[in-house]
Structure formats: structure tokens, C-alpha cells
Amino acid sequence: MTPEDCTGNDNAAAPLVAGDRPWTNREGIEEYNIRWHWITQSSTSGFTAVLRVKNEAKSLPFVLPPILRSVEHVLLVDNNSTDGTPQLARKIAGEEGLEEKLEVLSYPFEVSRCGPEHLATYPDSVHSLAYFYNWSFSHVRTRYALKWDGDMVLSPEGEQILRDLAWQLEGIEGVVTSPRSPVYVESEQVAYLDTSPGVTEPWGWRNSPAYTISKAFDWELRLPNPGDPVIRLPNHTCFELKWLEADEFAHWSHTEFKETINARKRREWELFYSLHSGAEMPEGVVRIESPKDIHVVKYLRKLFTETLRNMSTKRTMRSTTSES
């Protein structure tokens, strides 16, 4: 797809405006107009996790079971997968006995990649990342929406944290933020965990007109509103899978990540190619090797919290030693 040049358009980086009428797209495809299902009254309906996915069949066996166990509903929006992602999602939910929690939708349009391609796409186009996100989240029918990626794995402790949050947030209007630790998977037995403190991003918010997705320069954006209570989840809540044999940056239209605005993505890029080339292991990265009878991702779930705590203790000790 060649995105339209709208860098000079006054609305290029502006949020769409919520209202009673459906949000229409500039292509005039009525079936994919955005029809919100906001909950503005008191509700105990909990979380819907919204996964926007494309070719995540490799990650889903590790991602889906814990999130299905932890929230009221899981909405998986597939964007032209060619690896059987939607079918596998249904299969996994059935095997877990949780098929009633899963809803699978299709979004059949090519979505502009992050970076310049995203910037050059009108926010009300079906090809816009912001429009895709808003269309996906418009199907949420619970009190809270949870943005969840198709490569994010909840730790056992994270499962309990999400279950507890559902009732803790019943009476308030707030935003949930969470860090996530990248895990670079080399093989079924070997992976590398980046334990450096990461950026904390908004992942959960009220399903109401006050919370919609806007277009920013490089990607979509959902920031807390002024005065919102912010609930920050612990570092050990979840980790993010990156497969060293895959093209983990295919959803970007450039890879010239600047330290000032793309520091997290720049580190991911440098770590990915450092580990891929077999170079010396960077600081803050821990090699994880599992026994032969268990996949390294399942193995890491069991010791994720302990590993992060140990590394945090070591950093504190080094800092104390250097100061003295």
C-alpha cells in the first residue's frame, strides 16, 4: 500500500472526535465504520483484553492461556494473518475450556507501518493504525479495556494481579500502566531476557468516550487524561516475546530509531542484532536455558519474577558500591 500524503493536513496528528454517531472512514466502507459500545454507568463487568494480531501463531500458545484465565473477555482482531493465527486461537481457547471468553474478528485492510508510513496516512482511513485500534476497541463491552499484544506473556503473578484489578477498579475511572521486559528467543531451550528498566506505557483504561486512540507521529497514542488515577503494575507482570529467527521490525517503515524519542525501540533493535550475530551479551541481559523437556518460554514464566528481583538487587548493590 502507498499511503496518502497527508503530512500537511491539519488533522494528520489530531484525535478523532467521539459522538453519538458512528465514526466513518474516508474510504466509505460502512461495514468498518466505528460503532462504540461505551459503558458509562456503574458496572462490575471487568476487563476485555484486545489483541490486534498478524501472524502470531508462534507466540499464541504462550500468550493466550494466561490472559484467557485472567480477564472477563478476550477480543482477538486478526489483520490478514497467513499462518493460521485465528484458527489456532480458537483451538487454544477450546483446549483450555475457555472458548466462551474468546471472540475473533477480522480486519482485512493493510495497515500503515509505524514511522513515516503511518505519519503519511489520514487518521480516518481504514489503513490508519489509529483507526484500526479504535475499530478494534469499539467492540469492547466491559467496563475496562486492556490493550494486549499478541506476543505478551503474563507471569503467574501477573495473572493474579489482573484478576484482582478487575474488582479494585470498579468504582474509579483510571488508567493502568505496565512495563514489559523483552525476551529474545533463540531456540526451544535458549532465550535472553532484557532486565533493564523499561518504559511504562498505558495498557488499560475505562471503556468510555474519554478514552480513544489518537494519531501521533510514529504510532498510535493513548495517554492518561489530566487528573486520572494511574495504577502502575509491577515489573514482573509480563514479558514480550521476540523471535531471533523472525523479522521483528516488519511493522516499522524505518529502523533509524532516535535515542530521544525511540530509546526503547532503539535498544530492542541493537539487542536483537547483537544477539542474532552472536556478539558479546549486552549488559542487563540474562541468558535463560531450560531443561530439554520444557520450552524455554514456559520455563521462564516460572522464574521470571525471581530473575527480575535478583537483577534489581545486583543493580542496587553495584550502585551502592560505586557511591561509597
TrEMBL record:
Source domain of life: Bacteria
Protein name listed in UniProt: Glycosyltransferase 2-like domain-containing protein
